[in-house]
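W.,

You were right to be curious about this one. When I first looked at the sequence I had no strong expectations either way, so I just let the prediction run and decided to look at it fresh. Below is the sequence, 165 residues in total, followed by the output.
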Amino acid sequence: MTNNAKVPAKKTKGEEVISGGNQDYVTMTIADQLFGIPVLQVQDVLGHQKITRIPLAPPEVAGSLNLRGRIVTAIDVRLRLSLPARSKDKPGMSIVVDLRGELYSLMVDSVGEVLSLSNEDFERNPATLDPRWREVSTGIYRLNGQLMVVLDVPRLLNFTNMEAA
C-alpha cells in the first residue's frame, strides 16, 4: 500500500472526523453561497418538482413530493438557513438525501459539480460564521476566494428545537 492511499472518513457520535485522503462533495448554491454535502449522502438530484403542502408542518417543510412511488419530504433550505425566499420565477433544484430510512428533498437554487477535496484543507467552522449556519455545518473549505460551507445533513434536518419555538 502506498502513502497516498485514500483513507475513508470515520464517524463518531454523529460528527465526522476527517483524517487523511480526500472527501467528495456534491456542491450546490443557495443565495449565491456555495454549500457542499458528502456525495455518499446524496441519493438523487432533481429538477423542479410539484410539491404538495403539508398542513401544520414547520415553515421549513415546503411539503412532499412523489419520487418513483416514494413520498419525499421537501425542505426549503433557504428558510432553514434564515435566507430570503427564492423568487418565484426561478424554479430551483433538489438534492435527495436519506436520513434513517426517510427520504428528504433539499430545495436549493442550483446543483454544481462533484468536488474531490483534500481533508487537509478542511477547516472547522470559523467563529465569524453565522451561528444559524454553524449549527447545521461541520466546517468549511476555502476554494479560490470562495467559501464552501459543508452541511451536516442530520443537523440540517433536525427540527426538534424549532418546533418548540
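Here's what jumped out at me. DSSP finds four helices and twelve strands in the chain. And, maybe more interesting for your project: The CA atoms of residues 82 and 132 lie 8 Å apart.

Coffee later to discuss?

I.
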